[in-house]
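Example with several molecule types.
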Amino acid sequence: MQSLIWLAIALPLASSALLLLAGRKADAWGHWVGVAASGGAFLVGLGALLEMLGQPEESRAMVNTLWTFIPGGDLNVDVGLLADPLSITFVLLITFVGTLIHVYSVAYMEHDPDRRRFFAYLNLFVAAMLLLVLADSFLLLFVGWEGVGLASYLLIGFWNSKPEYATAANKAFFVNRIGDIGLIIAMGLMFATFGALDFSTVFAQAPEATTAQLTAIGLMLLVAACGKSAQFPLQSWLGDAMAGPTPVSALIHAATMVTAGVYLIVRSAPIFSGAPDAQVVVAAVGAFTLLLGAFIGMAKDDIKKALAASTMSQIGYMMLAAGLGPIGYAFAIFHLVTHGFFKAGMFLGAGSVMHAMNDQVDMRRYGALRGAMMVTWITFGLGWLAILGVPPFSGYFSKDKIIEAAFVGEGWQPWVFGGAALIGAGLTAFYMSRLFFMTFHGKARWTDDQHPHESPLLMTVPMMILAVGSAFLGLILATGDRFTHWLEPVTGHAEHHDPVLPIPVLIALTLILVAIGAVGAWFKYGRADVPEEAPAASLVTVAARSDFFQDSVNRAVAQRPGQHLTRTLVYLDHAVVDGAVNKQARGWANLGEASRRLQSGQVRSYAATMLVGLVIVAVVIVVGGL
Amino acid sequence: MVSPVLFWVVAALTVVPSLALIFARKAVHIAMSIVCVMVGLAVAYVGLDAPFLGVVQIVVYTGAVMMLFLFVLMLVGVDQRESLKETITGQRWIAFFAAGGMAVLLISIIGRVSIAPQEAQTGNPEEIALVLFGQYVLVMEVLGTLLITAAVGALIMTHTPRLTPRKTQTDLQAARVLAGADPVNKPMPGVFARHNALDAPALDPEGKPIEHSVSRVLEIRDQMSDGEEFRARLESTANPEDHQNPQRSTESEEEK
Amino acid sequence: MNPINFVILAAILFSIGSAAVLLRRNAIVAFMGVELMLNAANLALVAFSRIHGQLDGQVMAFFVMVVAAAEVVVGLAIIIAVFRARQTISLDEPAELKG
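Resulting C-alpha cells for the full complex:
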C-alpha cells in the first residue's frame, strides 16, 4: 500500500471535483461520496501503516516519484510522495479524524442547502492536507500548504452571505499569506544554498551549510509555521476563523491544518539542528503563544473562541517542544496526535451543544446541559480530562512529556520554557474547566426559546470514538515509548537528559497546578452563579477578552505603515516614475506639435523656407570666405 | 565690349516690367510685362554676341512659352483679379528680406570679382551648331526625349477620360422634362401681341403677357418692354372691333 | 562696358522672380516668377560666355531654355488639372499637406 499512497490524495481530490462539478444532481448523495472518499483515504493510510510496520525500521521511509513537476535546468522538482513514519502518522490522523468529522457533518449540515459544496471543500482540504504531509519536497509541500489555505478560506467563509464571516475568511487568508511569504523566502534561500528543494538533498547537505544560512532558513520556516499554526505574532486569524461551520473548526482549525506549522518544523529538523538560535526562537514563540492563548481562553465567553484560544495555546506547547530539538520532536508530534483527538472531540461537542441551543455560542447562556445532553457531556468530559493532563488520559502522557523536556537544558532556558509550560498547564486547567463547568454545570441560563436535546447518532458516534481516543490513545502510544521509537527514523534518537528538577517533582507540580486550576474554576463557575452578562473586570481580563488588542496592534504595526508605504509608493510612482515618463512623452509631443505647425501646407511657406535656407547658405559662404 | 547704352536700355526694359510680377493685379498684364522682359533679354543676348540665343529667346519665350501662359490664363478665366492682400503671417517680410538679401549677397559677391573680358567668339551661330551637334550631341538627344516626354505628360495630365456614355439629344430632352420643363415650346415673343419686336412678351389666350417668353438676356439688360404697358394699351382700345371695323369700312367705302 | 554688369542685372531679375514666387497666390503668376528666375540664370550664363569668350555658356543657356520649355508644358498642364479639380488656381487653397 505504501506505493499506492497517492490514492489517499487522489480519492478525496476526485471526490471534491465530482461534488463541485456534479451540480444539484449530487445533492442527495454527494455527502456520502465525500465520506467514502475520506474513509478510502484512511484505509489506504492504514494499509501503508501495516505494511510499514512489517518492515525493518531503516527501510520504513519510501519515496514514490510520480512525475517531474518542474523540469527547470538547475532546478528539477519531482512530484514525489514520501511515506515515512512521520507522514503516515499525519495521514492516519488526518484521514481518521477527517472521516469522523465527515460523518458528523452529514448530520450537522443536514439542513444547509449547500451541504454538497461543504463536502467538496472538506474533501479538497483532506486532499491538500495529505499532499502537504506526503510531499517529498518543500515545493510540493507548498502546493499542499496553499491548498489547505484555500480550503480553510473557503470553509471559514462558507456562510459568506454574512459580511463578517467573509471578512473573517479574508483575514485568515491575508495573515496566512505572510506565513506563505516566509515559506517562499525559505525555499528561495534553500535553493540558493543547496540548489535543491527536495527533502533528501536539502537535509543531506544541511550539515555543510553555515549556521547563518541555516538560521535564516529556519527563521523563515518559523514565519511560515507561525502563519499556518496561528502562533504569535500571526495568531489573530484563528479566533475569527471560528466563523466557519463547527466541523470545520474541529477538523481544520483544531486537529489538522493548524498543526501543519509544527509538522514543518519537525520535518525540517536537520535544518534546525544546525541553527540553535532559530530553535530558541521557535521555543520562545511557542512558550509565549501558549501563555497568550491561555490568557485569552480564560476571558472568552464564546465557546468556540475559547476553544480556538485553547488550540492556539496547545499548538504553542507543540512549537515549544519542536523548538527543543530532537528531545522534543517526538513529543510535539505525540501531543499533536492526542490534541487532534481530544480537541476535535471537544469541538464536535461544542458543535453538538450549539446544535442543541439554536447556534448560541455564548457560554453565559448555557449551564446545566449535563442533564439534557448526557452523551455530549461524557465525551466532552473525556476530552476535558485529556487536555487537563489528568492521568491516565491522553494529555497527561503527551503534555507532561513536553513539560519535562522543556526543563531539560542549561542556563536560563529550562527555567523560562519549563516555567511557561508549567504555568500554562495550570492556566489550561482553569480555562478548560471554566468552559466545561459553564457549559454543563451550574444553573440553566438558557433563553426562552431554547430546548436542549441530545444530537442524533450520526453526530454522537464520532464524538464517542474521538472520546475513546482522547481517553486511551495516549496510554496506548506511550506504553514502552512506542510512539517515540516509531518516529525515531525521522526525528532521530534523542539522548536522555535529566531535567533540572527531578521528574517526580515536575509531575507532582504539574498535577498540583492542574488541580488548583480545575478546583478554582469549579468554585468560580461550577458552584457559584455565573452572571449572564460579562461582569466588569480587571484591565488584564478586558485586554484578554479583546485578544490583547491583536487587531489594533496589527493595524497600528502592519496595516497603517503598510498603507502609508503603499500610498507613498503610489505617489512616487505617479510623481517620479510616471512623471518622468509622462513629462518626457509630453516633451516629445510638444516637439511634434511645434514641428507640426511648420507643416502649414502652404506651398509659399515652403518656398520661403527654401529661399531663406539659400540665403543662409550664401551668408555662410560670404561671411566664412569659403 | 558692350555698349553702355545698350546695357541701360536692356536694364530698364527688363527690370521695370518685371516689377509687374510683384505689383500688378491682372495676370494678363503681368504676362504681357514678362513678354516685354523676354524681348529685352533677347536684346541683351544679341548685345552679348549671342545672336542665335537672342533669336531662340524670341521664338521660344515670347513666341511659345508666354503665348502658352496667355492661353492657359484664358482657359482658367482671365477676369480673375487677384487680391494682393497677404494671407500668410509674415510672408511678405520673409519674402522681402529673403529676396532682398539674395540680391544684396549676389551683387556683393559679383562685385568682388574682376575679370578682364576676352574677345568674343565669332562665327555664331555656326560655331554653336558645331558645339551643339558635336560636343553636346548626346545631351541634345536626351533633351529631345525630354521634350517628347513632357508633351506626352502634359497630354495625360490634361486628358479626362469619359466615364459615362455621351448624351444624345433624346437624353437631354428627357432630362429636361424630368426636371419639370414645359414639354412644349414656349410661346415666341410678340406672336400674339400687336407688336412683333423681340422685347415684347407674348400674350396668352386671355390676352395677358407671358413674361418668360422674352429672352433672359433682354431681361437682364432691362430692355424688356413692360407687360403692363401692353395690357394698358390693350385695354385702352376697349373694343377693337368697333375701332377697327369702321376704319376698314371707311377704307372700303373710299375704294368704292 | 564690362559684361559683368549683366550678371548683376541677372541677380536683380532673379531676386524679383523669387519675390514673385513667394508673394503671389496665383499659380500662373508664381510660375511666371519661376520663368523669370530661369531667364535671369540664362542671362548670367550668356554673360559668362561673353566674358570668357567661349560658347559653352550659350550652349548651357540653350539647354536651360529647352528644359524650361518642357517644364512650362508640364507645369501648365498641372495647373489646368488642378483648376479642373478645384475651380481655383490659388496656391493657398491646396493645403492638404497641413500637419
